[in-house]
Amino acid sequence: MIRREGKRLNKGGEKDRERERSGSRSGLTMRPGPIARNPHELYYLTMQRMREKTDKMEENKATRKLRVCVATCNRADYSKLAPIMFGIKANPDEFELEVVVLGSHLIDDYGNTFRMIEQDDFDIGSKLHTIVRGEDEAAMVESVGLALVKLPDVLHRLRPDILVVHGDRFDALALATAAALMNIRILHLEGGEVSGTIDDSIRHAISKLAHYHACCTRTAEQHLIAMCEDHTRILLAGCPSYDKLLAAHHRDDYMDIIRNWLGDNVKEHDYIVALQHPVTTDIKNSIKIYELMLDALISFNKKTLILFPNIDAGSKEMVRVMRKKGVEQHPNFRAVKHVPFEQFIQLVCHAGAMIGNSSCGVREAGAFGTPVINLGSRQTGRETGENVLHVRDADTQNKIYHALELQFGKRYPCSKIYGDGNAVPRILKFLQTIDLDEPLQKTFCFPPVKEWDISQDIDHILETQSALAVDLGGTNLRVAIISMRGKIVKKYTQANPKTYETRMELILKMCTEAVIDAVHLNCRILGVGVSTGGRVNPQEGVILHSTKLIQEWSSIDIRTPISDALHLPVWVDNDGNCAALAEKKFGHGKGVENFVTIITGTGIGGGIIQHNELIHGSTFCAAELGHIMVSLDGPECMCGSRGCIEAYASGMALQKEAKRLHDEELLEVEGMVDLKKAESVSAIHLINAARLGNHKAEAVLRTAGMALGVGIINILHMVNPSLVILSGVLAAHYQAPVQQVIGQRALTSAQSIQVLTSDLEEPALLGAASMVLDYTTRRIY
Predict the structure, then answer these.
(1) What is the per-residue burial (b if ≥16 Cβ within 10 Å, else e) of 333-352?
(2) Contact 762, 587 (CB under 8 A)
(3) β-strands 604-610, 613-614 pairing
(4) Active site residues
């Protein structure tokens, strides 16, 4: 190739020399410059010029800005697109931003919301009136057609490198269709999600047209992969609106905003936000539900901010129902067409409840813990937080009214299912990696489908979903970042303070430090799991009664302060139950339907898994295995009773016996360390003495093993597990004696049950993490 160009340029060089000679003859003044005197000199000059040209092209390519066109169709998608637009605008050296506005933004009945885009200081490159009025199915189809007629001229004029399209609206389908046919790359936001109505079909159609995807949840990512999308072009970013709402919802003037929209007499958490849209595949039923919702709200007699429905087919009929019932004149209602997103955040955050079928209820409201009543089928399949109560068959006013009674005024743990506030930096980084020289034709990755736990290929997709685990022990307080696979990414350890105030202060400090570190470690924290000694109400996140080892730790609500400080959901349970959960997810209990875990440490505890579920009991004291009585007149236990397993086989019981033998000078045998020089006598000294042939020590351990074995036999005869797992520092010592006792004394049907020692190094931390990683959030009413 170079040789052919060289020959062509050599011929040109000969012509240049001929012109120079004729110019000299005619007396013309020639432009100064080097003149090749022979073919070799000319060849090297040509090669130098080619290298300079290539270097300049590479330099231009390196400095070329990515031309990004963001198209917004309505008030809802602008709340998701605006943070990205601000991010692009803030990086003028990397990007050029073009804004196209169409759809209901430009309709007076829907608030002329294009003005808020102008108020945000964005230059709107094109305004396209694409809505055919009528608010029925035919009008939606005609609107898509009108958009397809008008979009080619705009896209041809703007010539973007990439078009950013959001969601599942019919306007967005027109945008994606036009861009795909005009060979413009498409980035689709919030693909892969599942909901009700025609929106699902539109959303998935846009995903098939799009070249790149920025999705909000791990489940959505897996749906896209299952749809044969290339996993290297999928970014798990989170919802961009979370960047704004998590940063802005703590405003000092929120009461001013509430009073501005609802009146001076309204109080925080004492009003309702209502937002119901038509379901285009079942318009008649959705209008009926809307009417029942209005009746329930009127009867409930609370201040209510109600927003007009969107422009989908059926919205006109819904507005007629609203006006027929006099909602706009009702003293308890304020009906509005549009609320700026920053103010809407405050209204949802501080509401007593939100009701309707808007995606905001199942997505954004969870970040504040606001109670939500989701009506009908429009959001069927959406991932939701525990703050959402579904009334799928909303066929009576009483059912909706009862749901309001159940939800109004409650507060739930903050949920970050849809984002952690860092979506925009991820999306901008993703845009910067797009290679405009790669083939435009998208390819599909047909089965086998990539599984969720296989690593991705590029670093901006490699965020590890993780949990923050907290273990409150009698001596130490430990916090760890733990990945979905059970890897301890980082661990923090401090001495457990003696008072409640200093303990809570230290917990919050350590958790905050871990959350900050998680960002740098490329870990996304999904929630916080707390493992603690004592009796725990996991439903309320309250420690009811603590062990004597942890002082000032009874009747403590530990969930609320951690959730409020970190804006994360929090789960709490007893350390024995956590050990069982750890085995179920990461250890010998994985795939086992019924098993028992017994912790053998300072005390004796454990957890019971029955039919794959953890047993808590009616008063949360199930699986207090250390306090199973194996003797009526045995040694005194710390619980106040006698003859408990813990009084025989715990580390404290063995230490007590070791001290007794030491005081009687019956512990030491040849080969042992001089105990007089040791700081204190412990259970380890007793075990070492037995190994070296001390008959007294052997007798103590034999009795302890017998007591533990008999207690486990009682468990086998009551719940009949298929496996017993011993955990803790004494597990390896007790495994053989316990198996022997079971073989000798258990019923024939239970003698074959296997006793294993745990392979997990940190069962309490892993169990606390598993509560977060395995928690299912959906509820149905």
Answers:
(1) bbbeebbebbbbbbbbbbbb
(2) no
(3) antiparallel
(4) 575
CB 60 within 8 A of CB 86: no
* One-letter amino acid for residue 646 of the chain: E
Cα(728)–Cα(88) distance, integer angstroms = 53
- Give the CA dihedral 101, 104, 106, 111, nearest 10 degrees: -130
Judge contact between 167 and 239, C-beta under 8 A.
Answer: no
Single pTM value for the model = 0.51
Least Cα distance to 528 among 563, 573, 575 occurs for: 563
Question: Which residue ranges make up the annotated binding site for Zn(2+)?
Answer: 627, 637, 639, 644
User: What average pLDDT does the segment 671-699 reach?
Assistant: 79
- The chain-wide mean pLDDT, for the chain, equals 85
**Would you call 198 exposed, middle or buried from its count of C-beta atoms within 10 A (0-12, 13-18, 19+)?**
middle
pLDDT in tens, 480-493: 999 988 999 999 99
**In this structure, are strands 372-375 and 353-356 parallel, antiparallel, or unpaired?**
parallel
Four-residue CA torsion sign, 308, 311, 312, 315: positive
Cβ pair 509, 561 in contact under 8 A: no
Question: What is the C-alpha separation between 396 and 406, in angstroms, rounded?
Answer: 16
First to last CA, the chain: 72
Span 526-571, pLDDT tens digits: 899 999 988 899 989 999 887 766 777 888 899 999 999 999 999 9
DSSP string computed for 397-465: HHHHHHHHHHHTT-------TT--S-HHHHHHHHHHT--TTS-SS----PSSPPPTTSPPSSGGG-PEE
Model pLDDT for residues 433-454, shown as the tens digit of each residue: 999 988 888 888 877 544 444 4
- What is the number of alpha carbons within 13 Å of residue 458 lying toward its C-beta? 15
Q: What is the dihedral of CA 452, 458, 459, 461, to 10 degrees?
A: -40
Residue 21: exposure state from Cβ atoms within 10 A (0-12, 13-18, ≥19): exposed
pLDDT tens digits along 96-140: 999 999 998 888 877 788 998 999 999 999 999 998 987 778 888
